[in-house]
Known about the structure:
Layout lengths: L2 E2 L3 E12 L21 E2 L4 E8 L6 E6 L6 H14 L7 E5 L21 H22 L1 E11 L3 E3 L1 E4 L4 E4 L10 E9 L4 E8 L12 E2 L3 H15 L18 E5 L5 E3 L7 H20 L6 E10 L3 E9 L6 E11 L7 H20 L3 H23 L5 E11 L2 E5 L3 E2 L2 H9 L4 E5 L9 E2 L10 H4 L7 H15 L1
Parallel strand pairs: 3-13, 5-6, 12-14, 20-22, 21-23
Antiparallel strand pairs: 1-16, 2-4, 2-7, 4-5, 7-11, 8-15, 9-10, 11-12, 16-17, 18-19, 19-20
Helix pairs in contact: 1-2, 3-4, 5-6, 7-9
Amino acid sequence: MPHIDTPQMRGRIGFARADITPPVGIYHRLWGAATHERSTGVHRPLLATAMWLGPLEGDAQLILDLDQCLLDADEIAKIRRRIHEAVPTGLANVLLTVSHTHASGWMSRSREPFPGGELIPEYLKRVTNVCVDLAVKAAENARPASLVFGTGRCSLAAQRDFFDAETNQFVCGFTPEGPTDDTVLVGKAIADDGTVLGTIVNYACHPTTLAWENTLISPDYIGAMRDVVETHSSRHTPCAEGPHAERADYFAPCLFLQGASGDLGPREGFVGSVEVADRNGRQLGFAALSALESLPPPGTRFAYAGPVVSGATIGTWKHESTNADTTWLWRTITVDLPYRADLPTIEGTKADLAKWKENEEAARMLNDLDLARDCRAHVERMTRQLARLNALPPGPTFPLSVIIGRSGTTFWIFVPGELYHLFQTTLRLRFTDRAVIVVTLTNDWQPGYLPTESSYGKGIYQETIAMLAAGSLERLIERVANELNTM
Length: 487
């Protein structure tokens, strides 16, 4: 009989949550155009969310998301090693990703010399300890449960490669006619007694609502999104007083996983208003709730049940039990992607950095604050370019490490860097019978952006700072698709 299968898995699942908000006054400048150095307050707390995800028996994955923009590779490696030593799973199974909020500040030890940077080392030490504790708690909280997936739609994310015809250049901003991906992929972890253990929201949109005018520590739109989802999921999980009773004593965390958002950002962004960030977050939160509410009971499929003669002959459908798919396959692959032929050199970048520093100083001597601000932004660009170049492995190619998993009828793809949304839309079109979860910025932020091949040579921001050659994204798509076919 006709039926609809919903992607789901059965295994052992546990969640844990902790606060990782930095102290006010810590180094906060993440935007070249910003004129402040230190944070002046907190909009919403930065959070860390851990999920223990495994089969009923065997090694599990520890998925940990931090409200950070970026973390240095050495810092990530340290946290992962500490977690591996504390919980019973392999180092390769510890997956650390970031929400990519641009209002967290840049928590890099390279920023210690700047105002507020002296607070970074102690903060990173605290974050590491919190992550270890979270991993232990998530493992302890794990119990037999089902994870059911669904799809919603949200128009928050928009194309951000905009051509400014008046100045004849591409700028990074809202593009009304540009291609985008409005997919909101959600998951709900439900224990055998009906308790909602936690939820997942996988969406692709740069958290760049708040920009250079903002001086507050913030998770950007993700904070309000989580509040919306968690308030509903926690209150409406079944309890002893009955399935319709609200619970004030229970909490089901929402794990946000950033998708392939290299070319996507909020329709309204690059502002200083936290009200806009919260509005963006509520938009995504309600879209996620809509998708979560559409999910069927775990362990069921929606099947045609036959005709019933009434005023009309009615075709009826019902949820019927089905055997759980307990497939559990995970692997790590390495895809060697070539560097671009015109990759900047470290020596040339240092020379440009020195030039822009001199220009900034000269502008300040002339009391031309606008020019000084622009020069300072170029100093920041060259500083970041130098950091990217110094972090690249030697040789003609970058060894991109991709973690691919299959749990039940769901595919998981964890990849470093910032990929254009073509990566996820192509794979989801090829595997329409699966939930395909794409998580970027996992275990490293290198090699930076992976734009589409057609983006090269146009002066688009992401392409101009990309480290890899044109066609690398498409090559990666084909390799990952081939791996998924074998699973």
